């Protein structure tokens, strides 16, 4: 019997090539998209789980609200680790690391600058599971000036030589290599190539509770409720920070916490990747986002559901063609259960084919997908037992989901009616199918709307007046390598006719910023933090910023060293009123408090991403490392080549590096752009699958109304009247889907937009466009089939009687 | 009204070609009632389909109301059809989802008649066919005779000049069949040209003239008046 089922299943697949391939391709796309997303989600959820003590390790983080300003830092003060370990028996162990950005590493005569370096406590390897593969496996970092490298980093410097015992210079300090570890797993929330011992690092011994900078991790007793430990931290802070605060600011801890809050909190290790909201300066690596994991999970589920719905619809549609077969089988004595078995076998057959195709699709798509998500997912993931198990269960579930409905539907035909092809769908079944169409188009229209809104926000970001001119700016951040030659290098650049201006400042208001932060003091009391830029008199004109009051720094005025230029927000936030020029403020500079006079106000410009509101900013007249060049004319690449040649004349043993400010600006919104691309792709795929479903349903309808269409044509109906008659019902369903999709889409996209302090508005034309696109796509799909049906010669349909 | 000359129609399959109409010629005058008879497969239905402009011919000439229509495209033929021709089928071909009223109204919608006038016309014709009381029923709720009366009502509601009837009594018992034949005779008396395909000698006697066909050709013609 099974053999007969399989034979018939195969012949039917071959016979209805078009509908079978639509069916299988649709399902394959659904399964492939779903599996790809599952791979992505599994990877996101796997972060830091390779650690053997993953459930016992917690990161200590700092949160505060000072004068209404929220401070969220993933780093804490140097003594926190040791203090918590001493104070609480629940803390089994505590370890810290401190990262040093782009250090200069030298070996023999070569300099390198792209290694990732951190000082770590000697017990670092007791907390994190990073296997040592060579060298001292017991205590590699117990002595000062020792260092552990990853496998790849060691190869970078030493090739095939044995690195153990060799000396590496990092920022001109000597380190002895004591061990080599495996490369850090991709799914770790930090990646370092070099781990140096904290033993000889003086900053680590600092006992100040007023400065932070150390990533601190605790190992707690197994099964301990970390929230209860967390609640005991406030007493510790008061005990240790209180006296230091009184000494530095003159305020007692109780006075300070009357209007302000601050505290230390614990964050589970496995939460770090997906649930971190800390300041960008203290974020180790761009983490994931629980929100997008949820979004992608729902997209995966929806795609699979839509694909299954289609499978059902298309199978039912093609089933009407087999009514005669069912009739004959029944007349010849087939039982209903046998017919159900037969149709389920066919569903299983098609699902298996779709599954196979899906795996092939994944193999093809994975590199592209990795690129899109910035991941390194491997094909071998698919062979993991969970995935294989998922695939097999999917195969069974989809066969059942997709096969049961058509199987029971077709098998229930009455034999004589089936023989005469006389069967009418009852209103109830029509209701089910209409519901399925509405469901599919809710998702399609919702995704189209979301895509349009993401696009609109991206355009808004591109076109927003950000307060300076980001075009044609070349940033040479590392010009400080030239040391005293920097001035002559700058003057040589200025002689190039393609150069308009050059400023000796590296403060870039986009991308990775090196903004410094300091405090403003009012009546000797700390008031708030402000951002600080060190600039020369050329900075404001070079960047194309506008002074709205007062004057720029000038060489003519002698020492402007105690004068400052501030942005509008500073004036507004600090209440300097309508005439701020000449007023003074006290600012902490290098641990000293100095009084500065305001000589100019610069129009607000965005020096962070549009996610954040513009904050107070103070500009001091002091050159900083780095040069920014404003070019004129189109020959940017020629200019870069010339400057690079100039650079090489100085023989600094450092490669020439540059960035274009425009690129840095765009990089700031990479996550959003990626989100936009992903939404677009899944919107297209979803619509494609939904259209396959609609196509199937229209096929079904036209087959059912075959006679009616014939009669109407005989009575004089034109092709377009029939197309309209068939389309009307489906278009109405699509319209109904808008009623659900648009409020939902509006609600969720509004939440997404809340992440931007500066954002576009969702207005009615966007809904109109989304609706128009959806209806057009639906109508084209419907017409494709209905025109064919309407053009059929009516006598064909009437002859079947 | 109709003049066909050397009309030809073939049906082709991969291997063989069947001749359905073989150089058939005849004409039908305005106001005539013509019955076409012959065994199954002699080409009667094919002929009726071509006369109703539902199908193409493969040769010959077809003049309708003085116009050569043989080369007209689908749109032009549809236009002539909806204004001039009414159809009555053996199996009624009523649309199950529409009520009696809506079924009869359909041709008027397609010829663009205004709503108020449609209602008036449909009521008139339903009265005439004595099925007014059934106007809100669906076809499945009617007897065969009633269904065919609805079909006739639908065929005549547009006042066509020609009615093509394909075995109109084939699915009816004799009393219902006679009713339908009386209806057609009445319509013919009022000036409508009728061409009817039938197997029934009894029904054929209602006509003025019988054309007998065999293998796609006219074999004999008897005038009954």
From TrEMBL, chain A:
Q: Where in the cell is it found?
A: Cell membrane
Membrane topology note: Multi-pass membrane protein
**Superkingdom of the organism of origin:** Bacteria
Q: What stretches pass through the bilayer? A: 21-42, 293-314, 343-367, 387-411, 432-454, 681-701, 722-747, 767-787
Domain named MacB-like periplasmic core: which ranges? Answer: 20-233, 494-606
Record domain ABC3 transporter permease C-terminal: where: 299-414, 681-794
Which keywords fit this entry according to its UniProt record? Cell membrane, Membrane, Transmembrane, Transmembrane helix
Q: Note the Pfam families from the entry.
A: FtsX, MacB_PCD
Q: What is this protein called?
A: ABC transporter permease
Automatic annotation (TrEMBL), chain B:
PROSITE patterns, sorted = ABC_TRANSPORTER_1, ABC_TRANSPORTER_2
Q: Name one GO molecular function term.
A: ATP binding
Q: Write down the CDD domains for this protein, in alphabetical order.
A: ABC_MJ0796_LolCDE_FtsE
Pfam hit, one: ABC_tran
Family matches, as Gene3D superfamilies = P-loop containing nucleotide triphosphate hydrolases (3.40.50.300)
Q: For the ABC transporter domain, which residue ranges apply? A: 2-225
Keywords associated with the record: ATP-binding, Nucleotide-binding, Translocase, Transport
SUPFAM superfamilies in alphabetical order: P-loop containing nucleoside triphosphate hydrolases
Identify its protein family.
Answer: Belongs to the ABC transporter superfamily.
Q: Which PANTHER family match?
A: CELL DIVISION ATP-BINDING PROTEIN FTSE, LIPOPROTEIN-RELEASING SYSTEM ATP-BINDING PROTEIN LOLD
For this entry, the protein name equals ABC transporter ATP-binding protein
